[in-house]
Amino acid sequence: MALIQSLCMLAIFSDALVCRQFAMKNNTTTTTTTASTSTLTSTIANNTNPLAPSRLESIKNSYSELNLLSKTNPSDFIFDFDKAVTGVSTGTGGRTVAATAANFPGLINHGIAMTIGFLGPCGINLPHTHPRATEINFSVDGDFQVGFFQENSASFVMNEIHKNQVAVFPKGAIHFEQNLNCTPATFVAAFNSEDPGVLTIGNSFFGSLPATVVGASLGGLNITTIEDIRVHLVQNPSVGIAECRQRCGL
């Protein structure tokens, strides 16, 4: 009788051990499957979205040009300014479209970028700076008043450029492009950085700095007045100078 009981206990123990091992194996399989599914989902997302941050970061971290090319597709080296949905700024004075490393993977690690300005009649690309790039600006089909201010104690530089002429704006200089015509005009701006950055002066000064600091910078201007100014800040590009608007009946 004791022998029979011992054999029964052994059988029960063996079955429990087998069940436990099976459960552990099944759990490992489930975990592996879940991890694989997550990786696959991530891979599909990156392939679906060519501007996924993880994909851009991977291209950026390439150890050689050949390694970079192995991570890209032919379409990464083409950018359509007419169909762009990122890098676009639209205001009452027209539209600018920027191609940078953030929305054009083919620029990554190549040190260049470009913006096209489609300005309406009297449109102005508001005073701004590019903190990381010098700009060369080409007039495609218009007459532009252009100017820049480089730094304290420097002289303000003002010019007009016409079709097939270019202007240069040094790195970090405050500059602008004003369409002088009553018809639309286009410019092409090229930069010696894939990430030139942009800081629009009026919007950043009045819209981003604390009102108390802005007031102190303007001789103690009260906060209420500054808040009133903020309400009237415009999106770039805007309709430009009064002389042009009056001349063109705008």
Automatic annotation (TrEMBL):
Where does this one sit in the cell?
Secreted
Annotated GO molecular function terms are:
manganese ion binding
InterPro entries in the record, alphabetically? Cupin_1, Germin, Germin_Mn-BS, RmlC-like_jellyroll, RmlC_Cupin_sf
Q: Which residues cross the membrane?
A: none
Task: Show the Pfam families listed in the entry.
Answer: Cupin_1
**Principal place where this protein is found?**
secreted
Give the residue range of the signal peptide: 1-16
Keyword Manganese part of the UniProt annotation = yes
Q: Which family does it belong to?
A: Belongs to the germin family.
- Protein known as: Cupin type-1 domain-containing protein
The opening ranks of the lineage are: Eukaryota, Metazoa, Spiralia, Gnathifera, Rotifera
